[in-house]
Amino acid sequence: MSDQPILFSLNIATLCIILFSTHQLVLRAHGKQMYWLLALCLMSIGMIICMPSIQQFIPQFQVLSLVLSLPALLLIAPCLWLYTKGLTSQVLWQLEAKDIRHFVPAIFGGLIALVALCLPTQYLHAILVTEELNVVEQAPNLIRNIIYGLLISAFLCVLGWVLQSAWYAFKIVIRLRIYRTQLRDVFASTEQKELHWLNWLLIIVGGTWIFAAVSLVIDNLFSPIDYDVRLNAWMVFVVVYSLALWGLRQKPGFAELYNSSPNTDTNALQSAAASEETGNKEQKYQRSALSTDQAANIAKKIEQAMASDLLYLDAALSLPKLAAHIHTSPNYISQTLNETLGIRFFDLVNKYRVIAAQEYLQTTDKTILDVAMTVGFNSKSAFYTAFKKHTELTPSQYKKRHHENEH
Question: CB within 8 A of 91, min separation 6: which ones?
């Protein structure tokens, strides 16, 4: 009994976070449909975790909440996946007709719920609340067969949810890997856009899903697992808090491309993104009319922009900014970098930054952080990573070796 106040407090706190975050997401969802998906994801979680509160305060709705928890359960993973697609899309993401397939399991779960709600109340109460299956045995043959069919279908949906969750978690991991590669084709600094919080969230969610899945399967096949119920409440609270906090803070990684200049070829970006996902490098520029001479000329302009105009000093430098500077299509620049120069935009810019940093380390007494910020890096960690990649030394090692060679 001493656990009840703690569990109730966690449950109410989690529901409050969901209600507040959902309201905020709906307010900012105009023109950005991915926020609707995150709101739906949070509301689905709320539908599932609100059952203890409903049981305590409005028990007359307990059966309804239990029935609706099945479609809600099947909505969580696809909504999180589509939200991730929206965050990582190179063009403004919109829900398409083909995306409806992700909601088929939830729709099936909704049909099960709809049929269940048409059953006489005493049978639903006996199945879901009191678990008195002997009441079902006394039901007319038709109703009894419908109930058993619903129970089997619901159990298969729960097993399907386990596989569904694992599949979408895998898809999200692959999507994030491709997305971080695409970032390096467009931005010189990516650490604020890499969505590492989603990786940590997946680990937490994965642990919660595995725990819940094992509990559900064993509970249905054998007997309930004896565990501290506070653990589950804390895990759900952490998942919801993390998802709400970062979901409200996070903007799409390529958001600044959505309203960029007319020179930005959004169709080309979309085609490039699709080819990255399928792994087809030849398809990426198959519609391009860029000639070898044009590519060589663009390469010279890029060299001048970096070496003479010192464009790399801009900490927020991006491919569209470079394109505007040299009056060239971003897609042509991307193609030139990949096919002619054999380097990603991110690595090209950081190469010039590291070269400039080497001179500062040799000729000044500036701190490593000051040098990093002076040459265009946004953080010390990003500077260390880039510097070691290009020189195989840390900035401290490089500075020390240079001074040793001088003496």
Answer: 254, 257, 258, 266, 269, 270, 273
Tell whether the model's pLDDT for residue 218 goes beyond 80: no
Ranges of H-type helices in 34-94: 34-49, 51-57, 62-88
Return all residues near 104 (Cβ < 8 A) that are at least 6 apart: none
CB 337 within 8 A of CB 348: yes
Contacts of 172 (CB under 8 A, 6+ apart): 80, 81, 84, 198, 202
* pLDDT for res 2: 45
Distances (CA, A) of 147 to 151, 219, 272: 6, 19, 51
pTM of the model: 0.84
Closest CA to 99 of 187, 158, 40, 26: 40
DSSP state of 90: S
What structural domains does the chain harbor?
4-256 (1.20.1070), 258-406 (1.10.10.60)
Per-residue pLDDT of 115-140, as tens digits, reads 888 888 877 777 777 767 777 777 78
* Top-confidence residue, 221 or 112: 112
DSSP per position, 344-392: -HHHHHHHHHHHHHHHHHHH----HHHHHHHTT-S-HHHHHHHHHHHHS
CB 289 within 8 A of CB 273: no
